[in-house]
């Protein structure tokens, strides 16, 4: 676990680590895969990642979660597009948005899982999965008390959660990743972060594995955490 002095430093450090992992994967296999969580916190990290020199023609971008909402500001894809995708030379075919416009969401979720498996060529093992942490202890779109934490399929539809149905990678898909990076910022996340580090089973985020994981937080989120490891 690393504490960074502030949110800009956190974004910069996360971009450095993610870029290094993606470069390593692309060099070794000719392809790198990254799944990005939604929300406002990752926007600065994505903007920093756009500044890194990467073989974008060999990078594939997936979503960890997405709201079932009309195209526009409520969609996680909008922030991803503006902060990263519009600023790098990534082929359109390398961008894999969650298909939340489909009328049959369950079938669309299953199809997205198939796409992940087809593109990775490694049984659905994404190289990098980026996660955030909600002040209620959720990560991805795993609401507290929702059975999605016990899902066996790779992609599920949950909710409504905060007013919207969501499509999300499930714990099996996240925990299969080659590397997981947490990006946690803000004082409102401090209590949830303490619970996560303590392994509180009531927190959905505690369903994420502990090995091959890097947790990065700014000082505000780390308030009250005295012995990070």
What would you note in describing this structure?
The chain is an alpha/beta fold and 229 residues long. It has one domain: Rossmann fold, CATH 3.40.50.1360. Helix content is 30%, strand content 21%. It contains six helices and ten strands. The strands form two sheets. A seven-stranded parallel beta sheet has the order 1-10-9-6-2-3-5, sandwiched between helices. A three-stranded antiparallel beta sheet has the order 4-8-7. A hairpin with a 2-residue loop joins β7 and β8. The longest helix is centred in the first third of the chain and has 23 residues. The radius of gyration is 16 Å and the shape is globular. The N and C termini lie close together (5 Å).
The major β-sheet equals: 7 strands, parallel
Query: For the terminal residues, how far apart are their CA atoms?
Result: 5 Å
Would you give the CATH topology? Rossmann fold
Can you tell me the CATH architecture? 3-Layer(aba) Sandwich
Gyration radius (Cα, Å) is: 16 Å
Q: Which class in CATH terms?
A: Alpha Beta
Nearest-integer average pLDDT: 94
Number of helices: 6
Major sheet strand order: 1-10-9-6-2-3-5
Q: Assembly type of the shown chains?
A: single chain
Strand content: 15-25%
Instruction: Sum up the overall morphology in one term.
Output: globular
Helix content: 25-40%
Helix and strand element order:
EHEHEEHEHEEEHEHE
SS-derived structural category = alpha/beta
Q: Runs with pLDDT <50, length 5+?
A: none
Annotation, overall tally of beta strands: 10
Count of all domains: 1
């Amino acid at each position: 676990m690393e504490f960074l002095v502030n949110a800009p430093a956190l974004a910069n450090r996360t971009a450095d680590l993610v870029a290094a992992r993606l470069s390593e994967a692309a060099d070794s296999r000719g392809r790198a895969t990254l799944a990005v969580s939604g929300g406002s916190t990752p926007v600065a990290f994505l903007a920093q990642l756009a500044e890194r020199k990467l073989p974008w023609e060999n990078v594939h971008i997936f979503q960890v979660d997405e709201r079932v909402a009309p195209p526009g500001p409520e969609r996680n894809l909008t922030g991803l597009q503006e902060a990263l995708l519009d600023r790098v030379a990534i082929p359109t075919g390398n961008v894999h948005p969650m298909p939340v416009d489909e009328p049959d969401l369950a079938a669309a979720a299953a199809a997205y899982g198939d796409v992940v498996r087809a593109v990775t060529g490694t049984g659905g093992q994404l190289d990098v999965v980026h996660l955030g942490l909600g002040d209620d202890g959720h990560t991805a779109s795993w609401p507290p008390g929702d059975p999605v934490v016990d899902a066996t399929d790779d992609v599920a539809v949950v909710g409504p959660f905060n007013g919207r149905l969501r499509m999300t990678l499930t714990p099996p898909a996240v925990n299969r990743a080659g590397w997981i990076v947490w990006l946690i910022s803000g004082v409102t996340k401090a209590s949830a972060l303490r619970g996560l580090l303590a392994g509180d089973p009531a927190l959905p985020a505690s369903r994420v594995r502990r090995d091959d994981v890097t947790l990065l937080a700014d000082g505000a989120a780390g308030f009250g955490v005295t012995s990070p490891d």
